[in-house]
Design goal:
Blueprint lengths: L8 E3 L6 E3 L3 E6 L5 E4 L9 E4 L2 H9 L1 H9 L9 H22 L3 E3 L1 H10 L2 E6 L5 H14 L7 E3 L4 H8 L6 E5 L2 H17 L14 E3 L1
Helix pairs in contact: 1-2, 1-3, 3-6, 3-7, 4-5
C-alpha cells in the first residue's frame, strides 16, 4: 500500500506509462549501490518504478544504465537474473501467507477435508500441488462444480510443489488444500494473482490440466 499522502500512480521507467502503484514494482539502491526490489514499497530512499511483469523487469536489467542509472541519478549495479529474483520473492511472499491463513482458520488440508469443506460451501479457492496426481485434482474439480453455486466457481492455485507447501505449513505430504472465506485467504489469493500477473501466464479454465496454475474452477 502507498504510504500516507504518497501518489497512487507512478511512471514506469521502462515504458514511461503512468500506472497505479499496485501494478508496478519499486526498486531502490542498497548501501552498496545494488538495485534491490522493494515489493512492500516501504524501503527508504529514492525509488525507480517498473511495470510488474517479468518482461518489463528483464528490459530494465538489459537497459540498466538508462533505467536505473538515470532513475537513481547514481551508478546502479544489477546482478544478472533480476526478474527471476523478483519472481522468487513474490513466490516466497505467497507461501509465507499460507501459515497465517491456516492460523486464522482459513485453510484446510487433505483430500477428505477439502471435500468436506466444499460441501460446506465456504470455499473461496483450492490449492493443488503442481505434482499432485491428476485423478485427485479431477475429483476435487468435480466436487467443486457440484457444490459451488457461484457463476465463476473459485480460483484454483497450482503454483507450488508439495515440498514447498510442506515447508510453508510445517507438515508433510500437503497435496490438496482449500481456502475458506476470510481476509487471510483473500490476502493469499491477492499475492498469487500478483505472481501470475508478473509471470504473464495466460489463465486456463481446465482445472484438470497439468499446466493450470491459477484458473477458475
Amino acid at each position: 500500500m502507498p504510504r500516507k499522502n504518497e501518489p497512487r500512480e507512478r511512471k514506469c521507467a521502462v515504458s514511461q506509462q503512468v500506472l497505479p502503484v499496485d501494478r508496478l514494482i519499486r526498486f531502490v539502491l542498497d548501501p552498496d549501490g545494488q538495485v534491490v526490489p522493494d515489493l512492500k514499497r516501504t524501503l527508504p530512499g529514492r525509488g525507480v518504478w517498473v511495470t510488474a511483469t517479468q518482461e518489463a523487469v528483464a528490459k530494465a536489467e538489459k537497459d540498466r544504465k538508462r533505467v536505473f542509472g538515470r532513475g537513481f541519478k547514481a551508478e546502479a549495479r544489477v546482478d544478472p537474473g533480476l526478474a527471476e529474483r523478483v519472481a522468487d520473492l513474490m513466490s516466497r511472499a505467497a507461501l509465507q501467507a499460507l501459515p497465517m491463513t491456516r492460523k486464522a482458520g482459513g485453510l484446510v488440508t487433505g483430500f477428505s477435508k477439502v471435500e468436506a469443506a466444499l460441501r460446506g460451501g465456504n470455499v473461496v479457492g483450492l490449492i493443488h500441488a503442481c505434482d499432485a496426481a491428476e485423478d485427485g485434482v479431477r475429483k476435487l474439480a468435480a466436487a467443486a462444480s457440484r457444490e459451488q453455486k457461484t457463476a465463476n466457481g473459485c480460483p484454483v492455485v497450482r503454483l507450488f510443489d508439495s515440498t514447498q507447501l510442506d515447508l510453508a505449513l510445517g507438515r508433510s505430504n500437503v497435496i490438496h488444500a482449500a481456502l475458506l472465506a476470510g481476509p487471510a485467504s483473500e490476502n493469499f489469493l491477492s499475492r498469487v494473482r500478483e505472481l501470475e500477473a508478473f509471470r504473464s501466464r495466460p489463465a486456463k479454465t481446465d482445472t484438470g490440466s497439468a499446466g493450470s496454475a491459477f484458473a477458475q474452477d
